[in-house]
Amino acid sequence: xxxxxxxxxxxxxxxxxxxxxxxxxxxxxxxxxxxxxxxxxxxxxxxxxxxxxxxxxxxxxxxxxxxxxxxxxxxxxxxxxxxxxxxxxxxxxxxxxxxxxxxxxxxxxxxxxxxxxxxxxxxxxxxxxxxxxxxxxxxxxxxxxxxxxxxxxxxxxxxxxxxxxxxxxxxxxxxxxxxxxxxxxxxxxxxxxxxxxxxxxxxxxxxxxxxxxxxxxxxxxxxxxxxxxxxxxxxxxxxxxxxxxxxxxxxxxxxxxxxxxxxxxxxxxxxxxxxxxxxxxxxxxxxxxxxxxxxxxxxxxxxxxxxxxxxxxxxxxxxxxxxxxx
Length: 326
Ligand code: UDP
Known about the structure:
Layout: E1 2-6, H1 11-22, E2 26-31, E3 46-48, H2 54-64, E4 68-71, H3 78-83, H4 85-106, E5 110-116, H5 139-158, E6 161-167, E7 169-171, H6 189-197, E8 204-207, E9 219-220, E10 222-224, H7 225-240, E11 246-250, E12 256-257, H8 258-269, E13 275-278, E14 287-288, H9 294-299, H10 308-321
Parallel strand pairs: 1-2, 1-4, 2-3, 4-5, 5-6, 6-11, 7-10, 8-13, 9-14
Antiparallel strand pairs: 9-12
């Protein structure tokens, strides 16, 4: 059974392709390689193309007749989205609209969507569950919320069934290091920290030390990419069983500050993390921690690798194993 995986050459998409293939599906990667890597496409066919290219999408749906879509392709950097919001509204929102219209026209009505906890915005000391009002404070979160709205409307009008996952902070890598996280430029905390430890880049800058948290740095809920993609397979099964549209947070409920991540990084690598303290990064929320166990209770999701030490250890193994080449 073919599953169209947009963004299958990217970090999370490539791990999803591995999991899909292991479960007996054929993942068809559709990716424009703007931020993905062709070397990461190892588990099924690769079709280069852009989300906004409707003709190309129609061709792909006709050629592969996918049973479902997993939609990962997106720009996902908070800072960039604040500097260049038009990029996010064009690529993420207009691109997803084009993809949804192509899927509906092709009669492919099962859709698994990567959303984000950034759609919630800053809710001080409020537990974030799927019913928390969504007030994003950056253009990235706003673009993902807009796509969630689109999915709801397409569900009502055209019978599209969607499972939406609101990711918290995805980390770690395939423990077999066949695929892993590699962004150019890199903006995420754990890979930047590991590069700083290896001397591949300058000291890590801590973005803000005056937040209202125990140690003054931002708090995030980290989830292992292997656990995350496991949830996607459960989401696909949910759709196959005709259980309808549903939104799930994917986080563990445990929050770690930037300094706690650095301490764990030092413990895993055996080296202190070189760092400097810098100003806040525009668009960053103080604290994003999931307060929901809906994915566990309804989907039967059991995160198995999402402890900080294991996530950093798997990322460290991947970082040492090497990177993709363009
Ligand atoms: N962060 C940091 N220095 C960096 C990169 C990130 O202090 O060089 C912080 C960032 O402010 C946030 C956390 O690390 O609080 C996670 O950031 P990341 O970009 O990895 O993910 P995001 O939460 O933006 O999705």
